[in-house]
Design the sequence.
């Protein structure tokens, strides 16, 4: 392969570190950046620096934010008696897109994983328990529906239930627009188990 | 490249790019294999990603010149979802998976180890809350036996006579118990109480489904765990399991 100039090569190398970006795509992006006007390129690099300098974790819910507490935690219209527990900030984003949920969030920062040495103390468990002292009526556990997410959910439920707070788990089942025939057995079994009354 | 079908236990999965996963599987027919499941995390993927510890029927393209094969389909036969029901159970199941991952080197089939692993996970899912640890040490003893290093616990490794002492010596290096008469001054031995010794024998010889059927006190379990760990690390060079370190951490 023909060698690019050193600075283009460096840019390609940095871009190809991004998730989902292979070398070819990185090259296409690098050439695109090469054609940008200087002020456009500056805007891009400034945006990258800004997220590094300005974005931090909300001290209440640990979602990413520029102001502390975050917009969700500050919003007087949101229901403060419900907290939805998620693994990562991107899960908050996904749930917010639905416009269905009007309560608060709590970002754990991961899930329990013995193989990676991640225990309860490595997640924001204590911080959650502290928040529960403030008139919380329900905790919705929205960790991912895999083994690690499930173990984390059950662990938290056991911790919270003795406080007399209602603990719920997000439902799992057939995806919207899906067909029973094509669903795998685990998904089907979960859908039956988590059925709801009409 | 050939298309093959087998059953496997999911030992671990790793993220690969945005939407793909690599699974480390212990299979019935090919031993330990790594398969790449392209796009399996996408919502429209026909295959749901199988979970850790689950038993799956997999079809994959077996590459000759690569250690990473390509998954075609995976159907979960048993999810062992009960293993998530407590952190204790979940962690000991993870220890089973980690020990397999460490001790099984490559693509060599061993149906006895496969069946043992399956039985251990099944039993761990159903047993009482205090039992997963016993099952794990029994599993480890049996696994090393199937791998060709069976610890000799029934009689002295030197003279073959029954061990009658209250305090029993075990040599990790020689892989067995030794009586006081045969024991040498300058050799290293682990010391076990007679009770621990008798329990270790049971854990080695009984079927895994029965290994959780008798009470074991904390001290004996501790001694047995030392025996198994030192024996396995001497004979395989295996490092201390991360999950055991984790279990120590969460138990305070
Ligand atoms: Zn917040
Ligand atoms: Zn002897």
Sequence:
């Amino acid at each position: 392969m023909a060698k690019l100039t050193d600075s283009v090569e460096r840019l390609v190398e940095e871009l190809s570190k991004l998730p989902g970006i292979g070398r070819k795509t990185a090259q296409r992006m690098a050439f695109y950046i090469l054609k940008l006007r200087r002020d456009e390129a500056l805007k891009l690099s400034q945006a990258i620096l800004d997220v590094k300098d300005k974005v931090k974790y909300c001290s209440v819910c640990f979602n990413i934010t520029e102001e502390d507490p975050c917009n969700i935690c500050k919003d007087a219209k949101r229901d403060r008696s419900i907290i939805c527990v998620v693994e990562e900030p991107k899960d908050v984003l996904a749930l917010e897109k639905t416009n269905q949920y009007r309560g608060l969030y709590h970002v754990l920062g991961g899930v329990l994983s013995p193989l990676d040495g991640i225990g309860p103390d490595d997640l924001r468990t204590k911080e959650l328990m502290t928040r529960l002292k403030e008139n919380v009526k329900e905790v919705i556990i929205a960790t991912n529906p895999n083994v690690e997410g499930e173990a984390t959910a059950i662990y938290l439920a056991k911790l919270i239930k003795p406080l007399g707070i209602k603990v719920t788990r997000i439902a799992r089942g057939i995806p919207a627009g899906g067909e029973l025939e094509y669903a795998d057995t685990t998904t089907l079994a979960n859908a039956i188990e988590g059925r709801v009354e009409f | 490249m050939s298309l093959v079908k087998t059953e496997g236990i999911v030992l671990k999965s790793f993220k690969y790019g945005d939407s793909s996963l690599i699974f480390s599987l212990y299979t019935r027919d090919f031993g330990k294999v790594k398969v790449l499941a392209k796009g399996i995390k996408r919502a429209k993927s026909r295959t749901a990603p199988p979970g850790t510890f689950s038993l799956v029927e997999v079809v994959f393209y077996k590459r000759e010149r690569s250690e990473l094969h390509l998954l075609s389909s995976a159907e979960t036969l048993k999810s062992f979802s009960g293993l998530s029901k407590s952190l204790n159970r979940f962690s000991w199941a993870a220890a089973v998976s980690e020990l397999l991952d460490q001790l099984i080197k490559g693509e060599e089939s061993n149906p006895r180890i496969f069946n043992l692993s399956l039985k251990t996970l099944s039993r761990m899912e159903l047993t009482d809350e205090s039992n997963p640890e016993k099952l794990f040490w029994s599993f480890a003893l049996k696994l090393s036996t199937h791998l060709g290093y069976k610890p000799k616990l029934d009689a002295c490794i030197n003279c073959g006579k029954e061990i009658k002492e209250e305090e029993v010596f075990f040599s990790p290096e020689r892989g067995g118990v030794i009586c006081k008469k045969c024991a040498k001054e300058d050799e290293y031995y682990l010391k076990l109480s007679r009770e621990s010794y008798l329990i270790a024998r049971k854990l080695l010889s009984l079927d895994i489904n029965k290994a959780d059927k008798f009470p074991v006190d904390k001290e004996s379990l501790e001694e047995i765990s030392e025996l198994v760990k030192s024996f396995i690390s001497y004979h395989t060079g295996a490092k201390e399991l991360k999950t055991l370190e984790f279990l120590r951490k969460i138990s305070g």
